[in-house]
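Researcher: We plan to redesign the surface later, but first we want a full-length starting point. Tokens attached.
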């Protein structure tokens, strides 16, 4: 609402103006009243006003003196003079005091409303300019912090003092803010909405700022570390479904320490998987953990040896030793990160190297297992690893049992192709002929022959064509048709691309050997 102060020594005029204005502009103004200039000054010292209507002739302090006294005030209202005297001298003095308008009593409604509409527009434009300036200042401050995080040399064009960040010199704490389950998948729109929500919850607090870390992460910098706990509590009370997680640095001083504080918060955030019950994780609470424990490399390699042998119980026992929560909880988070990395390198990556596309579906469906940062709770990570190992064990065991039968079937397929190469062949026709699943047939054929079905058939047909070119007098188009190419143009192009010469050149070269 717009605050309006009406200054007049006659109550009937004060209340009359309020009544007229309220009917024309309902619920737009909040009103205060003063009987003279001295009383108006006291009210304005307590709380500024957006707009002021003041009479000129009043006891104790008149309207002109009131305006003169207000020239030294940091926040001055938009002033309109009221007078029963059409006196040019008063008007001159009012102009010198930057009065916005001058109304003669009795005030005409049309003139009053015209003045109010003009002043309302001025006030709204001033508010917009102030909001824009404030937003620009916040953006400059946020950009300065982001620059310090992402660049080694930010120059001195913008300083903390210019950006309104001088309070950082007195000490501050940096917090990295996330929502559980968000991972790194949040869109820009989601991240912006998240920051807006945080901003609303922090209304009323002093000396804080919200910014980005250069990779989409949200950073809160606050002078008082208690603010992080207050924010976590307000988030819980807001009824938001996702849980807010905050990782905070130790207290540091000066913008030069931003990177150090950020690295502490980023490292601290990793411990959320081991401390899921905490909304706020403090760096000083995790900095004393054991960094020297030896990672169980041999146990991880032993799991790889057991995969596919039907020794699921032994795999489970090994996994319990490797991911022993008692040991992991006492160690620095790098211990668990190294275990996760070795499971990827020594088990999952090696199995993919051996079985390729056949296990790709399993590994893709469990892609989250590759990084502990994808999990909010250690129990969830353990379960995901256990399930993936079980799936791989069963899959590879089943593959080994089926291998002899599969190889015999592929031998039949190759024999069939050797006989029917000139037919209208495609993978769907052949897989149906042998009553095999299309996808399974594609994988099995490539594993057996070392090349794809289409490449094998093309190579087979070209081999037959070269025999006919060398030992028969058939025309090129006749050979093309006999070996199964769809047309001679396609055949000549494939032949030239494969052999480097045309079919006729090939025939001439071969026949020269017999002359």
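Model: Full-length starting sequence:
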């Amino acid at each position: 609402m717009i605050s309006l102060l009406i200054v007049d020594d006659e109550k009937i005029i004060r209340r009359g103006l309020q009544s007229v204005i309220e009917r024309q502009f309902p619920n737009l103004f909040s009103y205060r009243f003063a009987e003279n200039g001295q009383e108006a000054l006291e009210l304005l010292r307590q709380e500024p006003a957006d707009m002021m209507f003041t009479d000129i002739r009043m006891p104790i302090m008149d309207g002109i003196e009131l305006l003169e006294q207000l020239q030294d005030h940091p926040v001055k209202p938009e002033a309109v003079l009221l007078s029963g005297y059409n006196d040019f001298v008063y008007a001159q003095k009012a102009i010198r005091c930057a009065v916005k308008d001058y109304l003669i009593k009795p005030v005409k409604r049309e003139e009053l409303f015209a003045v109010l509409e003009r002043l309302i527009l001025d006030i709204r434009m001033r508010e917009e300019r102030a909001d824009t300036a404030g937003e620009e200042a916040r953006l400059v401050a946020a950009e300065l912090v982001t620059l310090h995080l992402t660049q080694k040399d930010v120059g001195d064009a913008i300083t903390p003092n210019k950006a309104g960040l001088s309070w950082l010199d007195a000490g501050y704490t940096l917090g990295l803010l996330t929502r559980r389950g968000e991972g790194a998948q949040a869109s820009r729109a989601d991240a912006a909405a998240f920051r807006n929500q945080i901003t609303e919850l922090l209304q009323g607090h002093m000396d804080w700022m919200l910014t980005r870390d250069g990779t989409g992460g949200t950073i809160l910098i606050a002078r008082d570390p208690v603010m992080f706990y207050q924010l976590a509590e307000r988030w819980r009370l807001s009824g938001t479904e996702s849980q807010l997680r905050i990782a905070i640095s130790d207290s540091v001083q000066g913008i030069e320490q931003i990177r150090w504080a950020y690295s502490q918060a980023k490292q601290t955030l990793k411990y959320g998987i081991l401390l899921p019950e905490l909304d706020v994780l403090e760096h000083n609470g995790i900095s004393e953990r054991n960094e020297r424990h030896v990672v169980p490399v041999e146990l991880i390699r032993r799991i790889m040896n057991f995969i596919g042998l039907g020794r699921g119980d032994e795999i489970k026992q090994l996994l319990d030793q490797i991911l022993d929560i008692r040991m992991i909880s006492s160690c620095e988070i790098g211990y668990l990160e190294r275990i996760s990395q070795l499971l990827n390198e020594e088990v999952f990556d090696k199995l993919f190297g051996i079985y390729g596309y056949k296990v790709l579906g399993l590994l893709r469906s469990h892609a989250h297992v590759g990084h502990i940062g994808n999990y909010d709770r250690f129990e969830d990570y353990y379960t995901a690893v256990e399930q993936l190992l079980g799936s791989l064990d069963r899959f590879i065991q089943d593959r080994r049992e089926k291998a002899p039968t599969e190889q015999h079937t592929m031998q039949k397929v190759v024999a069939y192709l050797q006989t029917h190469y000139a037919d209208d062949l495609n993978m769907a026709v052949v897989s149906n002929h042998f009553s095999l699943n299309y996808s399974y047939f594609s994988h099995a054929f490539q594993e057996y022959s070392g090349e794809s079905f289409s490449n094998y058939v093309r190579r087979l047909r070209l081999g037959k064509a070269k025999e006919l070119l060398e030992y028969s007098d058939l025309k090129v188009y006749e050979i093309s048709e006999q070996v199964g190419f769809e047309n001679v143009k396609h055949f000549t192009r494939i032949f030239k691309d494969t052999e480097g010469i045309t079919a006729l050149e090939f025939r001439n070269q071969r026949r020269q050997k017999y002359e």
